[in-house]
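Practice problem 4.
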């Protein structure tokens, strides 16, 4: 199921660094009560610092972020508003919050902050649920599972054909919501906030303001049960409306194996849409926001269904990879069953990455022309997105199960772009949950919700990079901060990064 990856600048040198989660040693059979063992360096999570020349240095041990348990997801953000990005790592065997000390090292503050969680945690994401200026934490959990439950036998009995069991063989488990208190500790409020859906088998999580009311909502990708859409009620609670909104199932009313998820406005109508990856023979799910808290299943009408039928997707993102002003879709891929080729003649375990270019009314598979990395089959899982070399286009880092990671450098286009870094004052320091409205020359408007979440088990560059196409100017940028303040920037200079500081 793993692993995840994060792109973030932990030392404030202006260059993105990379953090990978990793597994652990599992004995066969596992002694009763034993947990996966991570002390051997080959199982450590890894932090790579980016050097001046674009190479990376392994600083894991020096930074003190080796991890514990069987690593799954990672979420990076400045949770305490001190100007330094912190790391939250999920794992089977307990989660960890690393506080960035600002000197190249981190301190484990999990217990004092009260965010350890329990069971099998998957993705996590930071957002300001109650708009108090302090970041809160949403954690998806997958299944009620332990090594005794996991010992059941699935698949054919002949040697080499045993397979992983379907999630239907296990009970679901609730999401976790930790709300940050004024003293920097966290209170687990999942049930009070009405996000503790025990039927869910949560994997990916993404945030967006789906109804445009200024409060961040949550979408969770669930495996083979109904998907979840939690609308923020502005009173500390959420309402789950996936069924009524039309994002709970596919257009035939069937469940699917939701894994990765993202939310953004792909059709430039001012409303965030939803994309969820799943297993082969199901087609990835694209839901278009109708503007009234209902969604239309747009998978087949946009060509996504035909493109994705035989694929299994994990990390994903709406991302404008050619800066033409239309959000494309990237997916890291690979089947979950490492025995699938023994039982299927047309599906493989390792799959090539997928790039679907937004052509306006539909998406087109351009993977074959996107470069050499798109012809290399991988058992890819997590995917993180950000501008690693600060050249104005989005690069991608893939976490690969049982193999080396992949760093995909975007070679760019001639299109113009605008990069924005938010610095909150009354809002959280990263500006997570802010809505940016960009008005281009000619009056066309586009919206972006600021988030580091989305994808699968992963954490993205929180900077917003806006493709401008052939336009070489922007009329204005409006930032609606989580605090409620509205700030306007007139005619920002294109083709560079700029910091917008909350007044």
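Answer key:
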């Amino acid at each position: 199921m793993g692993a995840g990856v994060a792109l973030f600048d932990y030392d404030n040198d202006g260059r993105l660094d990379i953090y990978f989660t990793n597994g652990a040693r599992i004995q066969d059979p596992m002694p009763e009560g034993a947990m996966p063992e991570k002390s051997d360096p080959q199982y450590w999570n890894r932090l790579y610092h980016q050097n001046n020349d674009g190479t990376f240095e392994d600083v894991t041990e020096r930074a003190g972020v080796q991890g514990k348990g069987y690593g799954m997801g990672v979420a990076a953000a400045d949770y305490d508003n001190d100007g330094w990005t912190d790391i939250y790592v999920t794992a089977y065997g307990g989660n960890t919050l690393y506080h960035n000390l600002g000197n190249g090292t981190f301190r484990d503050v999990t217990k004092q902050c009260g965010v350890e969680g329990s069971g099998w945690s998957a993705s996590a994401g930071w957002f300001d649920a109650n708009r108090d200026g302090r970041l809160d934490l949403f954690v998806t959990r997958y299944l009620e599972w332990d090594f005794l439950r996991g010992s059941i036998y699935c698949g054919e009995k002949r040697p080499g054909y045993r397979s992983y069991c379907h999630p239907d063989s296990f009970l679901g488990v609730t999401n976790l919501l930790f709300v940050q208190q004024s003293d920097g500790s966290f209170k687990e409020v999942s049930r009070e906030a009405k996000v503790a859906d025990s039927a869910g088998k949560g994997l990916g999580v993404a945030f967006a303001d789906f109804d445009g009311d200024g409060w961040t909502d949550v979408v969770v990708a669930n495996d083979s049960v109904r998907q979840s859409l939690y609308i923020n009620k502005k009173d500390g609670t959420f309402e789950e409306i996936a069924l009524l909104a039309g994002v709970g199932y596919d257009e035939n009313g069937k469940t699917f194996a939701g894994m990765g998820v993202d939310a953004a406005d792909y059709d430039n109508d001012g409303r965030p849409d939803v994309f969820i990856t799943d297993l082969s023979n199901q087609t990835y799910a694209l839901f278009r926001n109708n503007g009234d808290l209902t969604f239309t299943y747009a998978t087949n009408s946009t060509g996504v269904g035909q493109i994705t039928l035989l694929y299994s997707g994990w990390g994903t993102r709406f991302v404008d990879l050619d800066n033409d002003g239309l959000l494309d879709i990237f997916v890291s891929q690979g089947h979950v069953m490492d025995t699938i080729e023994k039982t299927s003649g047309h599906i493989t375990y390792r799959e090539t990455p997928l790039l679907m270019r937004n052509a306006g009314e539909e998406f087109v598979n351009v993977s074959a022309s996107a470069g050499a990395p798109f012809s290399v089959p991988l058992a890819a899982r997590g995917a993180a997105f950000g501008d690693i070399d600060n050249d104005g286009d989005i690069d991608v880092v893939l976490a690969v199960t049982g193999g080396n990671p992949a760093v995909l450098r975007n070679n760019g286009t001639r299109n113009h772009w605008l990069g924005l870094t938010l610095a909150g004052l009354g809002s959280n320091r990263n500006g997570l949950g802010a809505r940016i409205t960009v008005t281009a020359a000619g009056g066309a408007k586009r919206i972006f919700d600021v988030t580091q979440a989305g994808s699968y088990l992963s954490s993205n560059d929180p900077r917003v990079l806006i493709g401008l196409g052939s336009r070489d100017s922007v009329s204005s940028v409006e930032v609606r901060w989580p605090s409620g303040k509205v700030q306007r920037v007139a005619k920002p200079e294109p083709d560079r990064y700029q910091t917008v500081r909350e007044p």
